[in-house]
Amino acid sequence: MTGKLGILAGSGDLPQRLVQVCRASGRDVFVLAFEGQTAPETTAAVEHAWTRLGSTSAALKILRKAGVADVVMIGPMARPSLRDLRLDPLSVKVLAKAGANALGDDGLLRAIVGTLEGGGFRVLGVDEVLGDMVAPAGVYGRHAPDAQAEEDIARGITVAGALGAHDVGQAAVVQQGIVLGVEAVEGTESLLQRCATLRRGGPGGVLVKVRKPQQDTRVDLPTIGEHTVTQAAAAGLRGIAIQAGGALVVDRAAVAAAADAAGLFVIGVQVAE
């Protein structure tokens, strides 16, 4: 039988969904929640402890005491400035080891994964425990992209891939060949809100989300859900394209239903590695 799973819980409902899946399968779980990040309801009726970002030594001790064997990092985390963090000595070493790579999310996450593995834990990818959420190829729902949208998707893949290669972001919004916006530290939600003010006349734009080329697939896969569809519609977009096999879809049926109701397409597309 698999050992107890330690869930390093970020924000949103993905950590709660994982807890539910583990309970349904009979797997023991322990939630490590982070102050100012994890939703309080994530810890309801489940073994857990709270810590803060920057307390790496304490987090490792908590996981060991809880008898955790495997760990998974799930849910987005707002990245505070170094000035706002109170780093313990181990956290300082992690950042120093990462060096300039710690300036980007991917580099920092790789350093964290290395620290967890060095502490004796096996780091799992979200796709290993929530395999049914991995984006399949093809259209979700009734609507499909037309020729112009296909061109925008192709351009979005190129732009987002270039961003990812520099460890900047995972998403871009393209309308009729024009790049309306790219994702950086603000996240997809703020990107869509910004692009709502930049849209041109004619057919709406497309949100494209792909994983970073050098990304450790165990952490920080691009994710969409019903809320993403709602926000894309509010921004005047006509569709969403995500990387098949390289992104997560929270409740695919709900995403398809929301897209149908809003008249948007959602599609999983193959991306050349």
List keywords for this structure.
single chain, 273 residues, alpha/beta, Rossmann fold, Cytidine Deaminase, domain 2, 2 domains, six-stranded mixed sheet, five-stranded parallel sheet, 13 strands
Explain what you see.
This protein is of the alpha/beta class and about 270 residues long. The protein folds into two domains: about 130 residues, Rossmann fold (3-Layer(aba) Sandwich); about 140 residues, LpxI C-terminal catalytic domain (Cytidine Deaminase, domain 2, 3-Layer(aba) Sandwich), CATH 3.40.140. Helix content is about 35%, strand content about 20%. It contains nine helices and 13 strands. Strand 7 and strand 8 form a beta hairpin. The longest helix is centred in the middle third of the chain and has 19 residues.
Write a brief structural summary.
With 273 residues, the chain is α/β, with parallel strands linked by helices. It has helices at 14-25, 56-65, 89-98, 105-118, 126-129, 147-165, 187-196, 226-234, 252-262, and strands at 4-9, 29-34, 48-51, 68-74, 122-124, 138-140, 171-175, 178-182, 206-209, 223-224, 239-243, 248-249, 265-269.
What is the correct CATH architecture of the largest domain?
Answer: 3-Layer(aba) Sandwich
CATH topology of the largest domain: Cytidine Deaminase, domain 2
CATH homologous superfamily designation of the largest domain: LpxI C-terminal catalytic domain
Give the % helix: 25-40%
Helix and strand content put the structural class at: alpha/beta
Mean pLDDT: 89
CATH C-level class of the largest domain: Alpha Beta
Largest sheet: 6 strands, mixed
Shape descriptor reads globular
SSE arrangement, N to C: EHEEHEHHEHEHEEHEEHEEHE
Which stretches are poorly predicted, pLDDT < 50 over at least 5 residues?
Answer: none
Strand content of the residues, in percent? Answer: 15-25%
Order of strands across the main sheet: 6-13-11-9-7-8
Distance between the amino and carboxyl termini: 35 Å
How much is the radius of gyration in Å? Answer: 19 Å
Q: Give me the number of helical elements.
A: 9
Count of DSSP E strands? 13
Count of all domains: 2
